[in-house]
Write a structure and sequence with these properties.
Elements (H helix, E strand, L loop, with lengths): L29 E6 L5 H7 L10 H14 L1 E6 L6 H9 L5 E3 L13 H15 L4 E3 L2 H4 L2 E2 L2 E2 L8 H9 L4 E3 L18 H6 L13 H14 L5 E3 H5 L4 H10 L3 E4 L4 H4 L3 H10 L4 E2 L20 H12 L27 H16 L3
Parallel strand pairs: 1-2, 2-3, 4-7, 7-8, 8-9, 9-10
Antiparallel strand pairs: 5-6
Length: about 375
C-alpha cells in the first residue's frame, strides 16, 4: 500500500447508502439566462486563451437544441453577444425561437470623449437589432484599464448607459468580482487551493486589484443610483458564500435580482440556508448555468454545456438527495466537497425555472 500519493490521484468513493434520484429533465420548462453560446473572435480571445473553442459552430448549436428538448429547457440566453457587427453575428447565428441575445459595452471606446452619450445611443441600436439585455463581464473592475489604472465599476461615465438600459427596459446582467477564495492568499488555508493552482491567473489577491468588498460596494452604488434599471447580479451576486448578505442587498434594492450559475458548489453545501434563501426571495432568483459549449473532450471547469451539467442543477433544485457531486467533472473543479438537494416546492420551482426570467426579460 502506498504511503503517499498526489492530491490529484485521490478520488475517494463515498460509502454512504443514501437515495440517488436521477433527474434528467427539468420538472417545468426552464429558461437558462446565463449561457455563452457564442463569442465574437475578439471577445473569445479576451475571455479564454482557447479562443476558437468558444466560437460555437452551427453543428454544435443543432446538438444544443436537441439537448434543450431533451432537458425541457425552452430558451437559452446568450449573454456575450458583443456590439455592432459582433452583435449582428450573434443574432444571425442564434435562432430567435430558442435563443435570446444580450449586447455588451464597447470597452475599446471608453476613452473617447463622446463615449458616454455614444454608448447610451448604442444600446438603442442594439435593442432595435434584437438584443434583450446588457451583459457586463468582470472586465469592468478587474481588467479594463486606462493608462495602466483600473477603471472603477461606478465610474460616472457609465451612468448614461445604466440609465438608458432602464429607459429601454434592457436588464443588466452584471458579473462583478469572483469567489471569496480568489481574493485571499493561495495557501494551505484556501479551500480552492487546488483550483487556483490549476488556474493561477484567476487569483486577484495582491497587486493593484481592489478588494472584493470594494468591488461589490461599487456595484451596489450603481444599482442604488439607478433604481429604474433592472440589475441581475450573476453568480448569486458574487457572494454565494454569504447568503445573509445577499438577502440584505435584495431587501435594500428592489431593482436587483440574482441568478445561480456556476455556484452549486456553494449553494449545495449549505442546503438549509439555501432553502430558506430561495423561499424568502423566490421572486428574485433566476435559473442560470454559465454554460459554454466546447468541442468534445474539452472542459471549461464545471460549465461545459452537456446534459450531465444540467442534471446537477435539476437534482439540487428538485430533490433532497444527500452528498452528491455539484459538477459532472471527474475532479471537483472548485473544491473537494459534495452538495445536498434543497427539494423546492412546485410553486417556487416554476418561478425559478421560468416565470422570474419571463418577467425580468419582458418575454411573456
Amino acid at each position: 500500500m502506498p504511503t503517499q500519493m498526489g492530491l490529484e490521484e485521490f478520488q475517494p468513493k463515498s460509502a454512504l447508502v443514501v437515495p440517488r434520484t436521477p433527474i434528467t429533465r427539468a420538472k417545468y420548462p426552464a429558461i437558462d439566462v446565463h449561457t455563452h453560446l457564442h463569442f465574437s473572435a475578439d471577445l473569445a480571445k479576451a475571455a479564454n486563451p482557447e479562443a476558437q473553442a468558444l466560437v460555437t459552430a452551427p453543428d454544435q448549436l443543432a446538438q444544443v437544441v436537441g439537448w434543450m428538448d431533451q432537458m425541457n429547457v425552452e430558451t437559452m440566453v446568450n449573454l456575450t453577444g458583443g456590439w455592432g457587427e459582433e452583435l449582428a453575428e450573434s443574432l444571425s447565428l442564434l435562432d430567435a425561437e430558442r435563443f435570446a441575445v444580450c449586447t455588451e459595452p464597447a470597452w475599446r471606446r471608453v476613452s473617447d470623449s463622446d463615449y458616454p452619450a455614444w454608448q447610451a445611443e448604442e444600446l438603442q441600436r442594439a435593442k432595435n437589432a434584437g438584443a434583450v439585455g446588457l451583459k457586463i463581464l468582470k472586465t469592468l473592475g478587474l481588467f479594463l484599464r486606462e493608462e495602466g489604472a483600473l477603471v472603477a465599476v461606478d465610474d460616472e461615465r457609465f451612468d448614461p448607459m445604466w440609465r438608458a438600459a432602464g429607459e429601454l427596459n434592457l436588464p443588466v446582467f452584471i458579473h462583478t468580482s469572483d469567489p471569496d477564495a480568489f481574493f485571499t492568499p493561495t495557501d494551505r488555508f484556501n479551500e480552492r487551493w487546488e483550483e487556483l493552482g490549476n488556474h493561477p491567473d484567476w487569483s486577484f489577491h495582491g497587486q493593484d486589484f481592489p478588494s472584493k468588498g470594494e468591488l461589490l460596494e461599487a456595484r451596489n452604488r450603481v444599482i442604488e443610483r439607478h433604481p429604474n434599471t433592472k440589475f441581475v447580479c450573476l453568480h448569486v451576486g458574487s457572494r454565494s458564500e454569504n447568503l445573509a448578505e445577499v438577502g440584505k442587498w435584495l431587501d435594500r434594492y428592489p431593482n436587483m435580482s440574482v441568478e445561480i450559475g456556476a455556484r452549486l458548489g456553494e449553494l449545495g453545501r449549505q442546503p438549509r440556508t439555501s432553502r430558506k434563501f430561495f423561499e424568502a426571495y423566490q421572486d428574485r432568483i433566476l435559473f442560470g448555468t454559465d454554460a459554454i459549449p466546447l468541442p468534445e473532450g474539452a472542459k471549461y471547469p464545471q460549465q461545459t454545456l452537456e446534459p450531465a451539467m444540467f442534471e446537477c442543477y435539476f437534482r439540487f433544485l428538485e430533490t433532497e438527495d444527500e452528498y452528491f457531486d455539484y459538477s459532472a467533472a471527474v475532479t471537483p473543479p472548485q473544491g473537494r466537497w459534495k452538495i445536498y438537494g434543497i427539494g423546492l416546492p412546485d410553486e417556487i420551482l416554476v418561478k425559478v425555472y421560468r416565470e422570474n426570467a419571463l418577467r425580468v426579460l419582458d418575454l411573456g
